[in-house]
Write a structure and sequence with these properties.
single chain; 147 residues; mainly alpha; 99% helix
Length: 147
């Protein structure tokens, strides 16, 4: 039995203190693991909170984009209506200007006809005066021949 006691004694002197050290280190590792797990849980909670906040921000952004799109559609509709209105007004103004220009052109044409008639009348007056002079000369020659 002495061998069993020697082995027992060697085990108690060499292996049991190592078991104690291993047990102590295991406890320290468990403590560190628990702290690490707690930190991971805190980080997960923080990430969940950040994710929730990001989702809320995205929802607000989506709502803002929707309002912007609605506003844009309203503005586009108003601009289209304004364009149609301006086109109608421009067309009306063009028709009015064309009518005025046509009237002005007609008056210019009438004035031209009057000026041409006056020139023709002046030419006729000159021709009549020339003919009257010629008649006076012819009458004088006839009187000379008759005398």
């Amino acid at each position: 039995m002495e061998i069993v006691e020697i082995i027992k004694k060697v085990v108690q002197e060499l292996i049991l203190p190592e078991f104690g050290t291993i047990k102590k280190e295991n406890e320290e590792i468990k403590g560190l693991l628990q702290l690490t797990n707690q930190r991971l849980d805190n980080m997960n909670a923080h990430l969940i909170d950040q994710s929730r906040r990001i989702d809320e921000t995205n929802k607000r952004i989506d709502e803002t984009n929707k309002r912007i799109d609605e506003t844009n559609m309203g503005l586009i509709a108003r601009m289209d209506e304004m364009n149609r209105s301006l086109i109608v007004r421009i067309d009306e103004t063009n028709r009015w200007l064309i009518a005025r220009m046509d009237g002005t052109n007609e008056r210019i044409d009438q004035l031209y006809r009057v000026v041409v008639r006056r020139e023709e009348q002046d030419k006729l007056e000159i021709r009549v005066m020339n003919m009257e002079r010629e008649m006076v000369v012819i009458k004088e020659e006839l009187l000379k021949l008759a005398a």
